[in-house]
Specification:
The complex is a heterodimer of chains A (131) and B (552). Chain A has five helices and five strands; from the N terminus they run βαβαβαβαβα. Chain A has 131 residues and is α/β, with parallel strands linked by helices. In chain B, strands 5-4-3-2-1-9-8-7-6 form a nine-stranded parallel beta sheet. The chains are: A alpha/beta (131), B alpha/beta (552).
Chain lengths: 131, 552
Amino acid sequence: MPDRVLVAKIGLDGHDRGVKVVARMLRDAGYEVIYTGLFQTPAGTVAAAVQEDVDAIGLSMLSGAHMSIVPKVMDELALAGASIPVVLGGIIPAHDLAALTQLGVAAVLTPGASSTEVVAAVRGAIEATRR
Amino acid sequence: MSVREEWQEAYGSSELRDADFATMSGIPLEPVYGLEGAPGAPGTAEAEAPGVYPYTRGPYASMYRSKFWTMRMFAGFGTAIETNWRFKELLASGADGLSTAFDMPTLLGLDSDDPRSVGEVGRCGVAVDTLADVEDIFDGIDLSAVTVSMTINSPAAVMLAMYAAAAEASGVPRARLGGTLQNDILKEYQAQKEYVFPPRPSMRLVADTIAWCAAEMPRWHPVSISGYHIREAGATAAQELAFTLANGFAYVEAGLARGMEVEEVVHRMSFFFNAHIDLFEEVAKYRAARRLWARWMHDRYGAREVASLALRFHCQTAGVSLTAQQPELNIVRTAIEALAGVLGGAQSLHTNAMDEAMALPSARAARIALRTQQVLAHETGVANVADPLGGCWLVESLTDELERRASEVFAHIERLGDGSMLEGVLAGIEEGWFQGELADSAYRLERQLSSARRIVVGVNAYTEGNDEAPIECESVGPDDEARQVKRLSTVRARRDEGAVVLALDSLRAAAADPTVNLMPLLLGAVRTYASIGEVMGALADVFGRYVENPRI
């Protein structure tokens, strides 16, 4: 069975070009990809991830709201007792990286990341969780 | 009258800038070249000329000899007060048009104190909750002397009402207001995804603004049909061209369905295109757009006035072409893209700042971007001659090819709509056809980048220097959000609550009757300082809210 990845857009950011490109990259790399669509909430995203029994969550954030949304996602995951790794992609300034790692984000991908890097980040996050 | 005579007559009656139209070494330049002997449009015997149907070579006979393009810089962040400072700074440094960016909650019709707005207030643009914020944004600016462009779609009619109300409170009657409302809801479902209501009631609001502006705000452009976001979402140049014009045809048909005359619907419509990095293809795209629009308006919809036939457009350099790596290179990219817009005959232009791949522009980066346009206008000489690339074999051939490809798309959309472009576009949105086409193109480009078949300097080649110290970026803190939420509660505490409830009830009742134009009711509602969330919420009670079926 292929590993399953849920990719999500949380909040008000409607820019979905990136999330769709990443979804196709992962699909082409052999993952089963679930895309939950725009304007999702942290709670809804985690609930969907648990229900679909996914191996990783990919979040795409381009509006700059990651520092208010990502902590909520991590809280929801802890609340659900789920150990699903979270990979974040988008416009993420370097000065936020340490805080995101502290929150438990497995990897952060920034503009210009190649498909190889995207797939490696997701694979690495899933493997690290299984170890 | 021959094309040359027609052009000559139009040129002769044009006012010209006081300038020497010559090269740097003093060679005098003609206003346009190739009126005899240059290739014409396919299937026509005669050469094409600027200011002459089908306007491939430009909407005006004299083009930039009369007036440079408007240097319209898009700005707005944080609170209304901060945006007001930025606007005054831009006006002082020579910009002659203002362009307003709103934050995400405003664009989605949510108040700053809505739980969904947390973390987004003032982040990608200015936050507007009530008329009080619009009054602050334009405080001390003479609204009869500048044109203002407002980039907003789903709540566009509400924002237009707020602007008209703010101007009138400052003593400028709405009939004297000049500017543009983006108000292009179709491309939201296709590309940018800032929708609130389902497509059909949204189209009713667009038709309401078109009809109301025709009657009440004759200097205002009620719709700016936008290819920009379609391109940014992944479209090729041909798709940007085709989808944008198809949306334009849909708005025309929506206006006609209201019983408006074609000229009344079209003559204040304007366009907004992307200026991407492939210089010659971009120039060809603008030329093909003008030719296609003129022919469709003339042949299919029966328009005859120049204002309806000659396509005019704003353009913005491609945000998606900018890189976070070695951001100074973005100045170079932006200059080339701006050049494409100018060589393609744009009426106004926004140049992106070098730091926009990372953040909102800093004041310095925004100034460099504006200065880039000033270099093009004053130093390069490219504004001396209309359509300087007309007759270039490459550009003429690309113009014809883009026209052909767009025509194929129009035929597909027409089939989807059983002969109606309006129904075809709506069907294409409902089926996800547009969305799928854009995702396919975006992924095709991504694979070219991943396999290095296409090079982006600093991203997949020439990466030495990527580790250098980053440039200074703007940041918007939680302070702005807290300030804006406080501002909203102050306004709420001061207003007459009974008047708000009454205005919103009348709006709901009117929304349920599709024959009523909602603009006067929106004006009534915003004057009570009803918030954008309350007004949009009242409309959603009647119209419902749209949910897209997610597809990869």
